[in-house]
Amino acid sequence: MAAERGQPGTVLITGAGRGLGRELARQYARTGWHVIACGRALPADGFETGVEFQPLDVADPASIHVLAERLAGRPISVLVNNAAVRSPAPGLDALEAKAFLDVIGANTLAPILMAKALLPNLRLAARPVVANISSRAGSMTEGLLDDDDDDYAYRCSKAALNMATVQLTRDLQVDEIVVLALHPGWVKTDMGGPKAVLPAAKSAQGLRHVIDRASIVESGSFLTFDGKRVGW
Ligand SMILES: NC(=O)c1ccc[n+]([C@@H]2O[C@H](COP(=O)([O-])OP(=O)(O)OC[C@H]3O[C@@H](n4cnc5c(N)ncnc54)[C@H](OP(=O)(O)O)[C@@H]3O)[C@@H](O)[C@H]2O)c1
Questions:
Q1: Cα radius of gyration (the chain)
Q2: Which of 7, 27, 171, 198 has the fewest Cβ atoms within 10 angstroms?
Q3: Worst-scoring range by mean pLDDT, 6-10, 50-54, 92-96, 175-179?
Q4: Is the predicted pLDDT of residue 104 greater than 80, yes or no?
Q5: Taking the domains of the chain in order of start, what are their residue ranges?
Q6: Average model confidence (pLDDT) for the chain?
Q7: How far away, in angstroms, is 19 Cα from ligand 1 center?
Q8: What is the DSSP secondary structure assignment for residue 46, as one 8-state letter?
Q9: Does domain 10-224 have CATH number 3.40.50.720?
Q10: Which pLDDT does position 1 carry in this prediction?
Q11: Cβ proximity of 10 and 177 under 8 Å
């Protein structure tokens, strides 16, 4: 692994209003980063000092386009594609085309569109990183080992996000942009549920550390929040 990145820059986090995204925003701000916290709405209790809220619905390509226009000319060191949804009704019996495609739109297409739209901003930053928050649930080799989740759309969306990570790695290599797929662990959030084992603070701390230390050599890796490799 390369030396730590050092100087705080600007980090943009999608889905920053609650859950893991909120915790990442809090921690980055606390450690001197300028945080662009994106969400569909400003959380009722607002954000801490150092956090700039920007409205963004990742499921709406026009919303991504407008965000990129608003941010034109501003360097972004780290793009965290964190926002994601699960199926309203998982399971094969309940599977419906529209609901499936909605999950793919938010969890797979949106991170690709975000990277594309903010590429000029990433190019302006020193040692930029695109961190795609994926899930072990999308791993072909490990996803079914100890996980009886039956959400086809969610699993497929994260498996496809992993492929997008690999493709983006190749496309952005010329700009020396590091691209990562990251598994945050089973985290206590609305999505992870109350039985989850990992506090959001610990997951976020680990993810920041992995992002901070990643060099171009690790670009295209699928890593856990504590830096271990996940099988694709
Ligand atoms: N929790 C876990 O155990 C776990 C495990 C593996 C992977 N992950 C991944 O970790 C990431 C964070 O998950 P989490 O546990 O924090 O989930 P969460 O508590 O359900 O929060 C999801 C966040 O995504 C936002 N979001 C959803 N759809 C959006 C849209 N169309 N536009 C903008 N924002 C949108 C939500 O905003 P609203 O408030 O507007 O809905 C919310 O801020 C996700 O990528 C998830 O797949 C989580």
A1: 16
A2: 7
A3: 6-10
A4: yes
A5: 10-224
A6: 96
A7: 7
A8: -
A9: yes
A10: 38
A11: no
Q: Which atom of ligand 1 is nearest to the CA of 57?
A: 32
Name the residue among 56, 42, 50 with its Cα closest to residue 14: 56
Helices within the chain (DSSP H only):
19-30, 61-70, 97-104, 110-117, 119-123, 152-172, 200-213
Please write the tens of the pLDDT for every residue from 28-81: 999 999 999 999 999 999 998 889 999 999 999 999 999 999 999 999 999 999
Specify burial of residue 97 (Cβ count, 10 A radius: 0-12, 13-18, 19+).
exposed
Give the single-character DSSP code of 174: G
Instruction: Tell me the C-alpha to C-alpha distance, in Å, between residue 144 and each of 6, 13, 50, 135, 227.
Output: 38, 29, 40, 12, 21
Q: Which of 154, 186, 222, 225 is catalytic?
A: 154
* pTM of the model as a whole: 0.97
Picking from 20, 27, 21, the residue whose alpha carbon sits closest to that of residue 189 is 20
Tell me the CA–centroid distance for residue 91 and ligand 1, in Å. Answer: 20
What SS3 state is found at 58?
coil
Residue 20 has pLDDT above 60, yes or no: yes
Which two three-digit tokens encode residue 209? 């550390």
